[in-house]
Amino acid sequence: MNKRLLCIAACVQLLLLAAQVVGAWEWRTPNKEPKTIKSLPLAKQQTFTSEDALNLACLKEAYAEIRDVITDAQGIWLVLGNEKRVLYAAHNSDLNNYVDSLDCDVRSSMEQIYPLEPLRPSTPPGFAPGRKRPYALFYALYGNTARDVQTNLERVSAFGITWRFAPAAAEAFRKSALQLAQTLQYNPSLRSWLKNNGTFKWRFIAHEKVLSAHSFG
Predict the structure, then answer these.
(1) In sequence order, what are the residues at sequence separation of 6 or more whose Cβ sits closer than 8 angstroms to the Cβ of residue 66?
(2) What distance in Å separates the CA atoms of residue 49 and residue 36, rounded to the nearest whole number?
(3) Domain extent listing, the chain
């Protein structure tokens, strides 16, 4: 097996791991049929659209910190274990007074579905999954300042390199590292492709008013 095929195999392994983390995102098929969310025991069996029910289930699967979902006159809220509330979606668009076009509520950040296929055509203009982000959720989960975020980061060492990740990302990376180590046994020359091109770095996106995703580890 040549270098190119081995490199592709390693990339596929990483993509498979990413698919496990993202979970059911690619299966989100929005429609308006109401569903009752059952995976959140504290949600008191509230009724949501199918899209919202699946979004909320995915969020709960990805973030153990989310303990409840409540609805009031303003909108739907995620309740975290630290009792912080984060707006999932507002009933009235007047609440969506975000200072930057890249900042949004949680529902809006999940509207565009990530394509997970290894080979796919170029994305059309305006299609950029993950470009709009729910910063209120990030601040509640990871911290409001660089110092707050760094306090919770974990150091992960592999292949002679040390990275700093948020705990969930650290766990996922450790699993990836085990798979990559097996691949390197067959072709050690692939080691030159493994570099630390940055994990945690508290910074703003160039020419924007919002933080880079690297700011949260």
Answers:
(1) 40, 59, 60, 78, 79, 80, 81
(2) 8
(3) 3-216
